[in-house]
Amino acid sequence: MEVEDMRTFVEVADAGGITSAARRLGISKSMVSRQLHRLESELGVQLLARTTRGASLTEAGATFRDHAARVCAEIDVAQETILPDGELRGLLRIAAPLSFGPTHFAPVLVEMARRHPHLKVHISFSDHAVNLAAEGFDCAIRLGYLKNSDLEWTHIAPVFGTVVASPDYIKRHGAPETLAELVEHQAVMQGTEKWQLMDGDKIVAVSPKGRFKADNGTALVSAALAGLGVALLPTGLIREHLGSGALVPVMTDHPVPVAGMYIVCPQAPYPARKVRMLAEMLIKRFDAGPVSGG
To answer: I want to staple 136 with a disulfide (CB 3.0 to 4.6 A). Which of 4, 24, 116, 162 is the partner?
Structure first.
């Protein structure tokens, strides 16, 4: 029984279909199908019920999936143990934010791939917070305030934010100064999120309102520059515009609490060394200063 066949089966089971699993693994659908057929032939049972909509686990498949996942995890640990110090192999799948990913994180990931020629690095850039286990990621880089979850996490660096508006917006609507004034202003925002601001030594949550919403920080910067509303943005994303005066800090008596950059990953009995080494590289990269200014 081939270990890679078991890995492929676990991916198909978790992804809910051959097409999604092939995309995760970076191999063809025909190869996935061959590996599944070989595994089922070895076991003498049908593990997956294939339909035009995908693939679902049979009763035998549901039982075998957990055993196969544990076997694959234990083999990964065994392989890492006997590898030369610092050498990495296998596949590392990372989800990273689009707003900072290509500029701040991609160079670190490129360097990781350069150092480890036997490591495959697959990156997905999106400001959407993915479900790591369901979508097949080993880890994610996330910015913000870490919520209580069942994920393992490592703090990488502080992230600073600033509430800003364009001079044109301030000229037309004035600059909000109090929490009560802020909720009366138009805001550019991700959705229905609450903004966390300091009120003395307490953190308070404010619910802004606005007609321009986007799930990408760069788009929100453009909207703020166009005078569509007040925005709470990572300082590093707008440093150039703060310097030129195209955006002006507001709500200065109510600063944004310091957030963070984190590596998060699903809980596992055997933490992957490739994820630990990525965290170490990111910490070293941002040790000289926070990702979003200061």
So the answer is: 24
pLDDT digits (tens, 9 = 90+) for 123-180: 999 888 888 877 778 899 999 888 766 788 899 999 999 999 999 999 999 999 999 9
Tokens of 208: 């802004």
Exposure string over 22-38, b if 16+ CB within 10 A, otherwise e = bbbbeeeeeebeebbee
Contact 292, 177 (CB under 8 A): no
Annotate 51-69 with DSSP letters as a single string.
ETTEEEE-HHHHHHHHHHH
pLDDT digits (tens, 9 = 90+) for 188-224: 998 878 999 999 999 999 999 999 999 888 999 999 9
Angle at 173 between CA 168 and CA 177, to 5 degrees: 105
Instruction: Dump the DSSP string for 210-249.
Output: EEEE-S-HHHHHHHHHTTS-BEEEEHHHHHHHHHHTSSEE
pTM: 0.74
Going 249 to 252 to 254 to 257, the CA torsion angle's sign is positive
CA atoms of 61 and 64, how far apart (whole Å)? 5
Q: Residue type for 4, please?
A: E
As a whole number of angstroms, the distance between CA 54 and CA 147 comes to 33
